[in-house]
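Need DoxX family protein's 3D structure for a figure. Predict it.
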Amino acid sequence: MNNTQKAVWALRIGVAGEFLGHGVFALQGKQDWINWFSNFGVSNPSTASTLLVLVGILDLLVALVVLFKPLKPVLLWAVFWGFWTALVRPIVGQPIWDFVERFANWAAPLALYYLLSNQPNN
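Structure prediction for DoxX family protein:
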């Protein structure tokens, strides 16, 4: 296994771990996240909880796809979603550093996307 292949696997595991963790938190109904929905016009806690479950399921699917068969459209979704979920922090009133701390949430799937784009048969 060459260094590029090792980097690809390290990124696949890292991105899958991030989305697995977020997915589990979402399925557990993390209260902070439910409350954040009100900042975007979803004031009913039951609706927010349902949406959070859907987000959790999607995050788990992303984790599985990235780990077992990383598809470029899924990686681009992971870039977008990782950036958005990091950006939500300052939008809901957390310090900008909560956004900065989460740069890897979108940069890791972006790096994986580019590494896979440069490999033959991808």
